[in-house]
Write a structure and sequence with these properties.
The chain is α+β, with helices and mostly antiparallel strands. The chain folds into 3 domains: about 110 residues, no CATH class; about 130 residues, Jelly Rolls; about 70 residues, Phage tail protein beta-alpha-beta fold, CATH 3.55.50. The protein has 10 helices and 20 strands. Helix 3 runs antiparallel to helix 6 and helix 6 packs antiparallel against helix 10. It starts with a helix and ends in a 5-residue tail after the last strand.
Length: about 350
């Protein structure tokens, strides 16, 4: 695609005047690195001239950011889910950071930023579709549910749930494997459906493995208490480091003592920075990559960030993304000692 054609499509995109065919053509071009400089310059100019209110709406910014930060997936189609209110200037800064980093390396992370912790901004690497009142997610990612609970979805897995959780219960359907961290609500139970098996909690953390490659469904508790059963009976109630294994076909089951840390070891490949301050973030990064990271001032420490790195990214990639979001720089003092320096958040 010629540059002039892309610029024309970009302008029409901002005006919401693209046809379906033109939109598909435009998004395919965005996923390449050919026009990153143009996008970066447009955003930078808009920020500099303080024209953010008229430049790009939240949904448009979210879609382009997702395309820049995702691996191309020919089988995937992005449909934005309920764009939330957010600080538009920060959203555009994210786009600017993403365009800059894309010039240096192919970015495959899910990249998130929250300006309001009560209303999460989600830009996720997944296929998300809304059918009637159901929302579905597919592929590894961190999902924020309407009640404040989170689900870390493993690879080749999917999750569906009702749009609002307005009923007497909070119910989701899982295929594959996921780790649930459920916000406690004694008046509204949280129920996970995996085939005929139901896992019921009020508020706890647990892992469910219901992969198609296995004949069993395994429910393992990391924190709290979980009830496992079906529509006819309760198989058992388990507590931390206990597991109930249920045969998908016969529904026969047995309970074991296990190490929840071993069962959930798959999570260690992910780096989840979920609306935490930079002091907490660098502690997690330091622990994962076995390095010491120093912050030069308290303003950086108080910056809040949400980022999910799900593809075993190297340390430099993580640092580039994090520093771009909070407008800082990093440098190596020694091979295992790093300093992050800058003004930090406003």
């Amino acid at each position: 695609m010629e540059k002039e054609e892309f610029e024309k499509l970009f302008d029409l995109y901002l005006q919401n005047k693209l046809s379906d065919q033109e939109l598909e053509q435009f998004m395919q071009a965005v996923k390449t690195d050919q026009y990153d400089v143009f996008i970066k310059n447009e955003i930078y100019t808009s920020l500099k001239e303080n024209e953010v209110s008229d430049f790009m709406d939240e949904q448009q910014g979210e879609i382009i950011l997702n395309k820049i930060l995702s691996k191309p997936k020919s089988e995937s189609k992005l449909i934005s889910l309920e764009p939330q209110r957010r600080n538009r200037k920060k959203t555009l800064r994210l786009l600017l950071a993403a365009a800059s980093i894309a010039l240096l390396a192919a970015i495959s992370s899910t990249f998130l930023f929250k300006s309001n912790p009560e209303v999460p901004l989600q830009v996720v690497e997944h296929t998300a579709v809304e059918e009637s009142t159901l929302i579905a997610f597919s592929g590894k990612q961190l999902i924020h549910l309407p009640d404040g609970s989170t689900v870390l979805l493993n690879d080749n897995s999917s999750l569906k749930y009702s749009h609002s959780f307005n009923g007497k219960t909070r119910e989701v359907t899982l295929t594959g494997e996921a780790f649930f961290d459920i916000k406690r609500n004694e008046k509204k139970a949280f129920i996970v459906h995996t085939g005929k098996v139901q896992t019921k909690v009020l508020g706890t953390a647990f892992n469910i493995n219901a992969r198609n490659s296995s004949d069993d469904i395994e429910v393992t508790v990391a924190r709290g208490k979980v009830q496992v059963g079906d529509t006819d009976k309760i198989y058992g109630i388990i507590t931390p480091n206990q597991q109930i294994k249920v045969n998908k076909n016969t529904l026969s089951y047995h309970q074991n003592n296990v190490s929840a840390a071993v069962v959930t070891e798959w999570k260690s490949n992910y780096l989840i920075l979920d609306d935490i301050n930079m002091e907490e973030a660098v502690a997690l990064i330091s622990q994962k990559y076995k390095v010491q990271i120093l912050l030069s001032n308290d303003k950086i420490k108080n910056c809040r960030i949400t980022a999910s790195f799900l593809n075993e990214e190297d340390l430099d990639h993580v640092l580039k993304v994090v520093c771009s979001v909070v407008e800082t720089q990093y440098q190596y003092n020694k091979p295992d000692i790093i300093t992050i320096d800058g003004k930090g958040c406003e």
